[in-house]
Design a protein that fits this description.
Length: 99
Amino acid sequence: MLFLGEDSLAEGFSVIGFETHPNPAPAEVDRVFRELLAARDQAFVIVDDAVMNMDVEHLKRVRREGGRIVVVAVPPLAAPPKLGSEVADRLASMFGAGL
């Protein structure tokens, strides 16, 4: 179990046993996912929205391929609740932004 994202969230995830990477740069995010892929590890990875939106090759590959590595995004603590997934974006385009 890993968390990559803002330090205020990382602290909480570390308390419950996650390996954390607070405020990672894109190069660190890419390294973490590259190592997971190379090791063929199974992993549950939580990232914040900022990390999910980074242009990172190996994160994109993991999301595209699926399988042993599950990636889930969480919003910032101070942000209002908002569905931010590709599924939510598709639903909003079909039914309007008021979901």
